[in-house]
Amino acid sequence: MKALCWTGVNETAVETVDDPRILNDRDIILKVRLSTTCGSDLHLLGGYIPSMRAGDVLGHEFMGEVVEVGAAVRNHRVGDRVTVCSFIACGRCWYCARGLFSLCDNGNPNPGLTDLMWGSAIGGCFAYSHALGGFAGSHAEYVRVPYADQGAFTVPDGVSDTAALFASDAAPTGWTGADGAGITPGDTVAVWGAGGVGQMAARGAMLMGAEQVIVIDRLPERLQQVQRYIGAETLDHTKDDVVAELKERTGGRGPDVCIEAVGMEARSTGPAYLYDRIKQQLRLQTDRPTALREAVYACRKGGSLFVLGVFGGAIDKFPMGALMNKALTVRGAQQHGQRYIPRILQHIADGELSTEHLATHVMSLDDGPRGYRMFKEKQDGCVRAVFRPDGAATPAR
Ligand SMILES: NC(=O)c1ccc[n+]([C@@H]2O[C@H](COP(=O)([O-])OP(=O)(O)OC[C@H]3O[C@@H](n4cnc5c(N)ncnc54)[C@H](O)[C@@H]3O)[C@@H](O)[C@H]2O)c1
Ligand SMILES: [Zn+2]
Ligand SMILES: [Zn+2]
After folding, report:
1. Is Oxidoreductase one of the keywords UniProt gives this record (predicted)?
2. Residue 396 in this model has a pLDDT that exceeds 50
3. Atom of ligand 1 nearest to the CA of 264
4. pLDDT of 197 over the 50 cut
5. Is 174-332 a domain of CATH 3.40.50.300?
6. Topology at the third CATH level for domain 2-169+335-388
C-alpha cells in the first residue's frame, strides 16, 4: 500500500510499504479516510524525538472505515466509521483502570528507552518513534489499530468525517488539559498556542465552565480562528508583554488556570529566546521552554498550570522559585482520549464544538511532503494539512 514515511530529519516521502495485518485478536484494520498533521509530528520531523527510523510511516490523528475485525473485538464491525485515539491503551491495566490511558502499561511493546529517559515507560502512540512503541502510522491507505474496543469510537451519524478527524487527537488533548487543570465554573484561563491543540483546550475550558478564556499566539490567521470558531479572547505575544497584559485583563491577579499548548519548539524574541535556541541546537538542552516559563510567571498565586505541549528531556532556567513560592499546581500528560472522545463526538453532534475549521488544507496523500512543509512553515495560513489516501483533494477553505 501507499504511505507517507519519515525518511530523515525534515524529509518525508510517499513509499510503498506492506499492508497491515491483524496480529492480535483485539486488533482491527482500518481503511483510512482522513489523516492529519499534528504539532507533535513537527518534533519528530525536526529530529527532536529520538529513535525514528527511515521508512517509519507517519501519522497519529485519523479516522476511517473498519475493514477487518480481530476475533476478540466486540464493539466494532466491518463497515463502521470510527475515529481512533492517537494513544494506544489496553483498558485493563492499573493505569487504564484509573482513566490514565496514555500511561498504559501494555500500550508500548518497546518500553526500554522511555523507562531510561523518564524513570518509567508510558503507553504507546501511533507513529511516535520506536521509543513509544514503533507502531506504523495513519498517513497510509490502511492502519492496524490495537485494542480497538478501547481506542476506536463509532462516529455518530450527522458528524462529518472532517469533524470526527479532530476527535482523534487535537480535541481530546485539549480536554485532557482543561479537565486535568481542574477548571471550575467562573475561572479565567490562559492558553499558550492557537494550533489545533490550543484551540481545543480553549473550547474545552469554556464547555467546562470557564468564564474568560484568552489564547496567545502570534499568527493572525490562527487568532482569527480562535475569535470566530472558539469564541475566546486573543493576545499576540509579539505585540504585547504577555504577563503584564494577562494581569491587566484579570484585575491584576493573573489567570486561575494556564494551559501550555506550544511545546519544545516555542518561538519568541529577545536574548532569552536566542539563548534557548542556541542551547537546543548544541543539544545542551533538549527543549525550548519559552512559553512554559511565561505561563509560570503569569499564573495567579495558588493557580494551576497544565503542560500539553510535548517536552522530551531536560530544560534550563526553569523558574522553580516562582512555582514553589506562588504555590502553583503543575501537571502534564499525553492525552487520555479514551476518557473524552465519546463526549467530544457528542459536543460536535450537538453543535457545541467546531473542529472542521482546523482542516485548512485538504490534499491527496501523494501531496504529503508538500503538506508537511506548509504545516511546518505555517504557510498560506495552514493550521492542519489533511491527507486523503483515496486521492481526492478539495480546495483550501
Ligand atoms: N499532550 C498530548 O497528548 C499532545 C497531543 C497533541 C499535540 N501535543 C503537543 O501540543 C503542542 C501543540 O500542538 P499543535 O498541533 O497545536 O501544534 P502547532 O504547531 O499547530 O501549534 C503550535 C502553536 O504555538 C504557537 N507558539 C509558538 N511559540 C509560542 C509562544 N512563545 N507563545 C504562544 N504561542 C506560541 C505557534 O505559533 C503555533 O500556532 C505541540 O507541542 C504538540 O507536540 C500534545
Ligand atoms: Zn498529536
Ligand atoms: Zn492499560
Report:
1. yes
2. no
3. 41
4. yes
5. no
6. Quinone Oxidoreductase; Chain A, domain 1 (3.90.180)
